């Protein structure tokens, strides 16, 4: 009888203590042995490859229900696992919004046996559901509460301090924040130049971002509530957030670490348009400085697909957002290859970091007792991002044609080989992610 269900052999395994040439044994979907010896029902030869803890993308928009022409839970999660991502947190700005228990349960039902990766869903804060958020954030399968201070429409916009304070007063888990100041952006709408997407970061300027970040830090401290500031785009915000680590964590995206306004808008036009905007090369370099100082806690893709027809509309009629879940890890592996950061830092941003920030149960590290989630990569593989590789329903990427070094080879989730060398398993078996605050709170 086999000792293990699955054994990974021959690879460089990235343990909490560092890289090691060890075999890993898996049984019943869990890691049971580091330095495994014994037979296995299935053995995966990882010679020449690096075995990372499963990559977690804690910010994606998969658009279902209501906006399935752009993406759905199946296609978005298929893109995720093809890019080496083992779990995602999905955002609430769908139609209808995910702002009630029924809406969360609807997404969980839709995800069952359709999503390829493990998953959790954010509840959107509104002016109307603030008093119910403490209950909603404790639902199994819920990643927590998301606040849009700006850049949203309708009920999901919570822009004034009084209602922000009501939201922060309801519940205990860390709250995710889109920090752009709605009032300043409204005042600056005249800065938009029709037909010129490069005016996007002029309109949604640095001050729009840092003003909102200052406001939410003050409110969070008054409420004694932990927050998580999403897709930070300015070095000044990272410097500020670094001074408030007792209540605030933060995220950066591969897009803001890779693209710069001087090249992106002339080359990509409205395909480079997102919120908060792609800013200058000096901003990008500043993000790298603070990333290597250790300030950002996680890397999220902010995968936000729109159709080619929508993105082709003249600015500012064109919608903001770009796909990114499939290219998150490849872009960062390329940055590692170019020496911009270390593989150790990348691992922390994509696995151990999300586990710490959000209190995940049994994910984020390669240790016995944890879920057998692995992202297997070839650090030396040179390749080109081609349209045919992309799985997102929107059918495009700002990184198509980019030549990269480092590629995801395998995605293993709870001991199941979901993707290997570009080939998917026969069926999807993603499950809801578990959280300490829900399981044990």
UniProtKB/TrEMBL annotation:
Keyword Metal-binding assigned: yes
Record keywords, A-Z: Hydrolase, Metal-binding
EC number: 3.5.2.3
Coiled coil, from the record: none
GO molecular function terms noted in the UniProt entry: dihydroorotase activity
Cofactor: Zn(2+)
Domain Amidohydrolase-related residues, every copy: 51-418
UniProt key word Kinase: no
InterPro entries, sorted: Amidohydro-rel, DHOase/Allantoinase_Hydrolase, Dihydroorotase_CS, Metal-dep_hydrolase_composite, Metal_Hydrolase
Role, per record: Catalyzes the reversible cyclization of carbamoyl aspartate to dihydroorotate.
Family: Belongs to the metallo-dependent hydrolases superfamily. DHOase family. Class I DHOase subfamily.
Name of the molecule in the record: Dihydroorotase
């Amino acid at each position: 009888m086999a000792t293990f269900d699955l054994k990974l052999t021959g690879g460089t395994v990235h343990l909490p203590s560092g890289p090691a040439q060890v075999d890993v044994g898996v049984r019943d979907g869990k890691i049971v042995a580091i330095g495994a010896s014994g037979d296995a029902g299935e053995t995966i030869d990882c010679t020449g490859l690096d075995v990372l803890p499963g990559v977690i993308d804690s910010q994606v928009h998969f658009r279902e229900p209501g906006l399935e022409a752009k993406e759905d839970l199946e296609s978005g999660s298929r893109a995720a696992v093809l890019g080496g991502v083992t779990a995602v947190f999905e955002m609430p700005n769908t139609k209808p919004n995910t702002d009630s228990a029924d809406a969360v349960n609807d997404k969980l039902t839709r995800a069952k046996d359709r999503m390829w990766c493990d998953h959790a869903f954010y509840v959107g804060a509104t002016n109307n559901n603030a008093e119910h958020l403490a209950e909603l954030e404790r639902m199994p399968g819920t990643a927590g509460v998301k606040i849009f201070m700006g850049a949203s429409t309708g009920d999901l916009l919570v822009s004034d301090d009084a209602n922000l304070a009501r939201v922060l007063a309801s519940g205990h888990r860390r709250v995710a924040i889109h920090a752009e100041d709605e009032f300043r952006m409204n005042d600056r709408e005249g800065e938009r130049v029709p037909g010129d997407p490069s005016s996007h970061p002029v309109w949604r300027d640095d001050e729009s971002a840092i003003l909102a970040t200052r406001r939410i830090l003050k409110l969070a401290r008054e409420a004694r509530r932990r927050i998580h500031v999403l897709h930070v785009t300015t070095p000044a915000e990272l410097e500020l957030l670094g001074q408030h680590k007792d209540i605030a964590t933060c995220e950066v995206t591969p897009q803001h670490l890779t693209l710069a306004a001087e090249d992106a808008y002339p080359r990509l036009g409205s395909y480079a348009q997102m919120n908060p905007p792609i800013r200058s090369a000096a901003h990008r370099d500043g993000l790298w400085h603070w990333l290597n100082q250790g300030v950002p806690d996680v890397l999220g893709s902010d995968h936000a697909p729109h159709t080619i027809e929508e993105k082709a509309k003249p600015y500012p009629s064109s919608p903001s957002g770009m796909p990114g879940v499939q290219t998150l890890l490849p872009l960062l592996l390329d940055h590692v290859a170019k020496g911009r950061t270390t593989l150790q830092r990348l691992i922390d941003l994509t696995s151990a970091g999300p586990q710490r920030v959000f209190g995940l149960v049994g994910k984020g590290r390669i240790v016995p007792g944890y879920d057998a989630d692995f992202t297997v990569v070839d650090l030396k593989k040179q390749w080109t991002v081609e349209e045919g590789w992309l799985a997102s329903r929107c059918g495009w990427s700002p990184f198509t044609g980019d030549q990269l070094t480092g590629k995801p080879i395998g995605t293993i989730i709870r001991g199941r080989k979901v993707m290997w060398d570009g080939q998917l398993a026969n069926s999807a078996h993603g499950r809801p992610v578990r959280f300490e605050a829900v399981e044990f709170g």
